[in-house]
Design goal:
Length: about 260
């Protein structure tokens, strides 16, 4: 038995599946913490996306979680440590979020189970999302005295309309897989055991298409990213201020006592 301490390398698995040519998988692999994301995990995923941009052998990126859990969002202990540190450095999550917006290759996601916070908003940047029938999408930002991130305050109303976006991002209401599908956040709902195979097959299908035509078509559909990046900066200004607030610290500490 190994005594090695788990690291970001084991908590985020970056792989090139042999049976799916041209596909890079980024897998949350911290099931004991419901795949909550630490700063080091964010850095690892950011590097993977940036490397994929410049690697012509990678033609599609697939995000996956573990059985029954995509991601519970930010690691709250990690966030609390940042909040009390007084650091002016942006959270590592901000670098990852920007990398999502600047990703050059098609991105798909396979969600099974919990998708909380960034576990939900990440999918707004994916071109196609497959969810299991037992998935739950929820963004409890305001409940934690925070504000939306990842340009979700811009993208969610575009995708879902004001009422649904407000319900998700501000009221903190959870969305089932079927509700997320009806709202346009999810492309397809399948049974839990089929999520990974369907997601990888979808990524492989995109990977097999003519790459230049695929890039141009994707860029046309997604549109300019300037407004997305500008909204990310605006959200980050508020998010960073809220992160250091007494209100947020109290909310984090209450969460940690659960």
């Amino acid at each position: 038995m190994s005594d090695a301490t788990p690291t970001a390398d084991s908590h985020v698995l970056i792989e090139r599946p042999a049976d799916f040519e041209g596909v890079l998988t980024i897998r949350f692999n911290r099931p004991e913490k419901k795949n909550a994301i630490t700063s080091s995990m964010y850095h690892r995923m950011t590097a993977a996306l940036e490397n994929a941009n410049s690697d012509d052998t990678i033609r599609a990126v697939a995000f996956l979680g573990t059985e029954g859990c995509f991601s519970a969002g930010n690691d709250m202990a990690d966030f609390l440590a940042h909040a009390v540190s007084g650091s002016d450095e942006p959270p590592a999550a901000a670098l990852f979020i920007r990398a999502l917006a600047l990703a050059e290759k098609p991105m798909v996601s396979g969600v099974d189970g919990l998708a909380i916070g960034i576990g939900t908003t990440l999918n707004l940047h994916c071109d196609l999302t497959i969810a299991s029938s037992r998935s739950l999408f929820k963004t409890p930002f305001v409940d934690l005295a925070l504000v939306p991130e990842a340009a979700s305050s811009l993208l969610a109303p575009r995708v879902m309309g004001h009422q649904r976006a407000f319900a998700m991002l501000v009221a903190g209401e959870g969305f089932s897989a079927d509700a997320a599908h009806e709202a346009g956040l999810v492309w397809k709902v399948v049974e839990p055991q089929a999520v990974e195979a369907e997601t990888l097959a979808l990524a492989a299908k995109l990977s097999a298409k003519p790459p230049q035509a695929l890039k141009i078509a994707r860029d046309l559909v997604r549109g300019p990213r300037d407004d997305v990046l500008a909204r990310m900066d605006e959200e980050l200004t508020h998010f960073s201020a809220r992160l250091k607030s007494a209100e947020a610290r109290a909310a984090f500490e209450a969460f940690m006592r659960r």
